[in-house]
Amino acid sequence: MRAVCFDLDDTLFDYHQYVRGGLLAAAAALEARTGRDHGEELLSLYFEEGVTDATFDRLLSRHDLSPSLVPELVEAYHGSPTEMRLSPYPDARPTLDRLADDYALGVVTDGRNGHAKLDVLGLETYFETVVVTPEHGISKREERAFRLALDDLGVDPARTAYVGDNPVTDFREPNRLGMRTVRLRRGRYRDRTPEDGARPDHVIDSLDRLPSLLEPNPHP
């Protein structure tokens, strides 16, 4: 048996879709508290001003609102992915269709709500295992995240590829395990330089290239 495991956010879909839906959900929660709609301002903070860390803190500070509201806004942000409009990248479903007959497929993601995201994207049925690391109290910086997927699929690391977009978190542990690593260079981390030990075996700019890259498989 051969297998391919994927990251989710920015690999199978544009994570900015999730961000937009989450920010609007947080804005609705804040409006219920304050009576004021800050939705457009939140979107502007994140997408135009580039405040992608501590976005809620910045907004609350601007309006002299209590920072104690942050946990509630974070919970609202992640609360309802089934109500969001999420679409896979155009090349995601055709690639999964091409791989499904010859490979066992899995997902290993550090993002919250992985199962719900896949369900909304209409992709969940492609995967025999989905490891959402926050549900296990781990991250992709730990070998166990990938071991869980390999054990579920019943495959050897040497016969498994891992496809992701973030060179900081996606490739170090798969490299150590002897998995074949493929970087999809797009999304938030397209210009990030990988560190030693975290360099992927291959770099592609579209999932369309993945099936031909994996064949012929050099592993026994």
Termini separation comes to 10 Å
Percent in strands: 5-15%
Q: Biggest β-sheet: count, sense, barrel?
A: 6 strands, parallel
The overall average pLDDT, rounded, is 93
- Low-confidence sequence ranges: none
Strand-pairing-aware structural class: alpha/beta
Q: What count of helical segments does DSSP give?
A: 9
The CATH topology of the largest domain corresponds to: Rossmann fold
Written as H for each helix and E for each strand, in order along the chain, the element string is EHHHHHEHEHEHEEH
Highlighted features:
2 domains; six-stranded parallel beta sheet; Rossmann fold; hydrolase activity; 220 residues; HAD-like_hydrolase
Layout of strands and helices, then pairs:
Blueprint: E1 3-6, H1 15-34, H2 39-48, H3 55-62, H4 70-77, H5 92-100, E2 104-109, H6 114-121, E3 129-132, H7 143-153, E4 160-164, H8 172-177, E5 180-184, E6 202-204, H9 210-214
Parallel strand pairs: 1-2, 1-4, 2-3, 4-5, 5-6
Describe the fold and architecture.
With 220 residues, the protein is of the alpha/beta class. It has 2 domains: 3-14 and 87-214, Rossmann fold (3-Layer(aba) Sandwich), CATH 3.40.50.1000; 16-83. Helices cover 39% and strands 12% of the residues. It is built from 9 helices and 6 strands. It has helices at residues 15-34, 39-48, 55-62, 70-77, 92-100, 114-121, 143-153, 172-177, 210-214; strands at residues 3-6, 104-109, 129-132, 160-164, 180-184, 202-204. The protein has a 6-stranded parallel beta sheet with strand order 3-2-1-4-5-6, with helices on both faces. Helix 8 links the parallel strand 4 and strand 5. The protein is elongated and about 60 Å long. It starts with a strand and ends in a 6-residue tail after the last helix.
